[in-house]
Amino acid sequence: MIDWNTRVPFCAQCGSKTLSVNAGGKRTCPPTDNAGGVTKERPSCASRQGVSNICFPRTDPTIIVAVVSADGTKILLGRNKRFPPHWYSTLAGFLEPGESIEEAVRREVWEESGVRLSRVVIHSSQPWPFPANLMIGAIGQAAPGDGEKIDLGNDPELEDAKWFTMDEVKEALEKGVSGLGEAAPEGWKEGNLRLPPQTAIANRLMTAVVEGFVGAAPKI
After folding, report:
1. Class at the top of the CATH hierarchy for domain 60-210
2. What positions does the domain Nudix hydrolase occupy (predicted)?
3. For residue 25, what are the CA distances in angstroms to 15, 19, 31, 68, 99?
4. Start-end of CATH 3.90.79.10 domains in the chain
5. Residues 14-49: pLDDT tens digits?
């Protein structure tokens, strides 16, 4: 909330300074200024017409997805340059205007990894205030054959993407979880997979998959 109030000090319609109201939960473009104890009328502003005179905190919808292979035996994980060594996570990205959640999941996975998805199931969500995201968690299943082929040439965001077996992911969930700025947990063996902590929805999605959320792979 503090970040949002800092980012939007001016009215998007007329450019005048906005006023924080409702304990910082809303901002408005008032009709008058009272600088130095002198009340002055402001120029007219379209934001004061009807119910549009209030600016609310922004929330950016973001998809995050655990991708499962067509036969249900592997999970696709990626890493970018800021991750610690051997640290991987699920794929994620912002929804675009006019795009459904399922469309965004398929597009982001293809852009970042080259993998093409068949079915997509929404699993859970998590507010992520860094600064204003709503993480929409999904589980997607890759199309068989060439649909599982990894190609990082569509988008340079990822440094690497790999298919990991369920056993590899399960072991990492038990012995290799840590935050980005944290050291590897005690008992972790050098070279093994590292994953996000339990407080992250990425961890929850991977946990759901290894615990059988996907079930038997359907015919696609």
Report:
1. alpha beta
2. 57-186
3. 20, 11, 19, 40, 28
4. 60-210
5. 999 999 999 999 999 999 988 778 899 999 988 888
